[in-house]
Amino acid sequence: MSPPTAIETAAAAAPETRKARASQLFTMQEIKEQTTGENAKVLIVFHNKVYDLTKWVKYHPGGDLAVMHMNGRDATDAIISYHPEWVLEKKLPHFCVGELAETSRTPSSKISMAYRQLDDRIRKAGLYQTNYNFYIREAVKFAFLWATAVYLILNFGFCIAVCYFVVASCLCCSRCTQLLMHQLFDSTTAGHSGITHDAWTDAVMGICLGNFVGGVSLGWWKKNHNVHHIVTNHPEHDPDIQHMPFLAVTSRLMNNLYSTYYKRVMEFDALAKIMLPIQHYTFYVLLAFGRFNLYVNSIAHLTSKDRVPHRTLELVGIAFFWTWYLSPSPGLIITHIMVSHMFTVLLHVQITLSHFGMPTDIVEGESFAEMALRTSMDVDCPRWFDWFHGGLQFQVVHHLFPRVPRHNLRTVRPWVMEFAQENGLTYHNYKFIKGNRIVLKCLKQVAEEVAASLKAACAKAEQEKKKTL
Fold it and tell me: Structure pTM?
């Protein structure tokens, strides 16, 4: 038997004052009954202990939906992936209400055990810790590029500055080919509390980078992205693959599925019937407008009736962004927006590349690690080309261990490859061009299925029409 990991030790060390509360025994059937119906509770299992999050779930920093998708289930591996030891030692025990009865306890799978051992290895190697010199270098680099752009605008005009933005972005600002888009990488890390590892501090840093600099709500991104991690590529639950009526990565979306994230039916309407059969041709064109979709989702999130942490600060950040962003003359605004936003197509290609070509099947009973490896793709590139991808090329590693700072992802990658090989799992790792081909093949396959379905429906309608004549 493997020795207990640091997380298992922390989970077992509940304060004495909580042990009396945790004396109740639950069966999985009882948990299922209590988490369904009108007065349903929010109960999760972590290392055979039962936690009641009913009153607290709306305050969860990563959004309530991420927790709700684990309601009534054993969430051990998902909790390990997202939370540092201090949360498990100091916060989680407050919600413990009992333990699983012996009759409901099942041994953790070989894959889950191996995953926890790998997490412990990463922890002991210090790879969850941030190298602040990395972020200092990033700040100096982008401050220099920003200052140069301002100098060119003031002394040589906007057109020269735009040319500089494009060239400098291609050379220095990672794969998004737009100077201001560098904030995505660091705000992404901040959204996972992967910079200072303090939720409040990283949230404020992420808002400064995401809202004030980029015009995108960090709160929206966290809610969206955390759900995406928990239910990756699930047609009804994962918002990152719900792009009807313009794109569909599975033909199941023709069935008017209900989105639990957007809380609406994703209708297979007239526009979808036009766009989906040609989606493999329009894919890159649509991605060129992807940035505008982020703006719309951000505003919708911040103006919703849902509880939004830091709502005022985020709204101030969005207002600040649009104030300075729209400060030039109208002609220059339009030119700059079209140039800068169209060049971010590479960013959205990178984001969609990681999952659009991967399976969307629903596999009951698979572990957190199995789901991450099955539904995610890494982009293979040499170390010297990491600047182009900004860390998002390691999506398999990131989905398994989202709190690992991006500058440590390459170090963890060989360990993940070893983990997959030892446990008979497929590690999807492709060159950038091949990855694009895989995505286009998937889109084309779905497009052909949609076209065939529409053709069959038309033929049936014709036959019915002839019968009535």
Answer: 0.86
Residue 43: both structure tokens together: 């109960």
User: Residue 2 corresponds to which tokens in the numbers above?
Assistant: 């493997």
Q: Phi and psi at residue 50, in whole multiples of 5°? A: -105, 135
User: Count of CB atoms within 10 A of residue 137's CB?
Assistant: 12
Q: What would the mean pLDDT of 448-463 be, rounded to a whole number?
A: 91
Confidence band, pLDDT 50/70/90 cuts, at residue 2: low
Distances (CA, A) of 187 to 343, 403, 409, 467: 20, 13, 16, 61
Helix (H, G, I), strand (E, B) or coil at 49: strand
First to last CA, the chain: 75
- Percent share of the chain, pLDDT over 70: 83
What 8-state DSSP symbol labels residue 394? B
Cβ neighbourhood burial of 87 (10 Å; 0-12, 13-18, 19+): middle
175-182 average pLDDT score: 42
CB distance 69 to 23 below 8 Å? no
Pair 184, 344: CB distance under 8 Å = no
